[in-house]
Amino acid sequence: MDKRSEVKLVSYNIKNMEVCASAARISTTSGNAIDIFEKAYKNEKNQELIQKVLSSGHKSIMEHVVFTMALKDVSAFVEQFFIECRLASFTVKSRRYVDFSKLGYYIPSDLEGENRTHYCRYMDNLFSAYKILLENGVPKEDARFLLPYSFNSNFYCTLNARELTHIIYEIKYGRGKKIPELQDVANQIL
User: Which residues, including other chains, have CB under 8 Å from residue 33's CB and lie 6 or more apart?
Assistant: First the structure.
């Protein structure tokens, strides 16, 4: 049941450099929004302008760049960590409709020897009990309460670059810095 999580960028908006540069210029440049955007198209100074604006603390221009990532076989803990960042959109695999008995669970990398054996035995027992309930006709939406917080989850997350930067910062330097699974996810995103 020891699977490695995977993060894949499945979509992002095109012309994001031009969009950010246009957003940076809109408050200080004459002309309308469409003209400003058209002048930004393939402008060699876009990246330099964006870096200058960001270094001065104006991060709102990053909100115009949007990413959608697919997160595969991460624990429900990782799912919850991302969902707590409410400036993103999420669609998760439903525990109400999907049979989770064979999806597996996260095993902390620092568990070794007897501790790892006990942990896996306990997780296997929870998944066995879950499967038995399903086989006995208990609805998935009721049986799901047996699933441990470490079960493998899959979800989509769409967020802007500013929020993505915030999540990565929280993982790398904030409350997620001591959690190996989150570090792995952040490294994959980077």
Answer: 22, 26
pLDDT tens digit sequence for 42-70? 899 999 999 999 999 888 888 889 999 99
Q: How far is CA 176 from the centre of its chain?
A: 13
Give the span between the Cα atoms of 187 and 169, in whole angstroms.
Answer: 11
Q: What is the spatial distance between Cα 103 and Cα 148, in angstroms, rounded to a whole number?
A: 12
Residue 42 and residue 58: Cα distance in Å, rounded?
22
**DSSP 8-state code for residue 84:** T
In angstroms, what CA-CA distances link 59 with 24, 26, 63, 97, 186? 10, 14, 8, 40, 20
pTM of the full structure: 0.76
